[in-house]
């Protein structure tokens, strides 16, 4: 493996040259950056000389398995995000290639069924209002399970009603009826609609232009037009455009420049925005953009593209995740000193998978840092579930019809 032959980047003498310089301008973040940088320096130096970077598979598995059945009081604040917990845990398990027991999978299906709103879409918990974020999480979780029982949970007719109920005249979507508009909603809507085969041009009319208006002078995308570029929103907007087949309408080169500049020179992980601290979850939100951009440039006929590597430092990201983001008792985290949680576990592992696997089904090149035991399953860069689960869901739902008759009349703007 490439990774085993290559010495660790962070053990090079010249690595400390990459430490943060505040250019004489002190801010809250720059102070944290300097003290955090010194911490990472000692962690990286200590770990890189004493250990080979090792994925703590068994510990993560135990942590995830327990989370599927029992959550501590600390998760009370996520009572409106329960389908998310299902997705974060199930996706982490599929990346680790750990099977889900049929009885557990069936229980998750029944739980998600209880989160489905009578008017369509999924809510954050039983009896709550439908919301696009848990709808995305629930559909992804059900596609990971991938059984007839799982697919049959989704009421596609009502899901389409729900999507129309949050669609806005300018092409954007609200997160829920009466809720906020931002680019996450366009991605959640496009993701669930495409997976379940209810995507129609009419439903996404003007959505492309609305998303494009979120790309700002930095090159990345903001949550709504006119704000600061941000990793999570940039991923959502770009992935939504990929689903809609319109990613070429972005300024791809400006976006590429912005995202590669978000990989931290010293830490190796990504920051979410310019001048922010590194955070493990951006290992997916930012690094996950590189496969999308690679594909977009390939389609445009760009001749200089590598056929072996994404356009970011894949080894440095793997070092950051494996050396700095693992809790020794299982679970992954934002940065050293922070506590583990299922969100960071999911997105650190997703980013690690992106950094390990280049290519797609036809062309594939692996770069696994450390031993082969560190290898995760590949993830689909648009949906962030394993590619064969995407293929199976598409195959299943494409047998079912999509009907659009009368839908626009029920949209939010006509109701209010
Ligand atoms: Zn984070």
From TrEMBL:
Cofactor(s) it depends on: Zn(2+)
**A GO molecular function for this record?**
zinc ion binding
Catalysed reaction equations from the record? L-cysteinyl-[protein] + (2E,6E)-farnesyl diphosphate = S-(2E,6E)-farnesyl-L-cysteinyl-[protein] + diphosphate
InterPro entries assigned to the protein according to its UniProt record, in alphabetical order: FTB, PGGT1B-like, Prenyltrans, Terpenoid_cyclase/PrenylTrfase
Q: Name one GO biological process term.
A: prenylation
Under the cellular component aspect of Gene Ontology, which terms does the record hold? Answer: protein farnesyltransferase complex
- Which branch of life, at top level? Eukaryota
Transferase in keyword set:
yes
Would the keyword Iron be found if you checked this record's keyword annotation? no
EC no. given is: 2.5.1.58
Cofactor info, note text = Binds 1 zinc ion per subunit.
Write down the Gene3D superfamilies for this protein, in alphabetical order.
1.50.10.20
Q: What top-level class of enzyme does the UniProt entry assign?
A: transferase
Sorted keywords for this record are: Lipid metabolism, Metal-binding, Phosphoprotein, Prenyltransferase, Repeat, Transferase, Zinc
Q: Which residues form the Prenyltransferase alpha-alpha toroid domain?
A: 55-385
Subunit composition and interactions? Heterodimer of FNTA and FNTB. Heterodimer of an alpha and a beta subunit.
Family recorded in the similarity comment: Belongs to the protein prenyltransferase subunit beta family.
Q: Per its database record, what is this protein's job?
A: Catalyzes the transfer of a farnesyl moiety from farnesyl diphosphate to a cysteine at the fourth position from the C-terminus of several proteins. The beta subunit is responsible for peptide-binding.
This chain belongs to the protein called Protein farnesyltransferase subunit beta
Naturally occurring in which organism (per UniProt): Mola mola (Ocean sunfish)
Species lineage: Eukaryota, Metazoa, Chordata, Craniata, Vertebrata
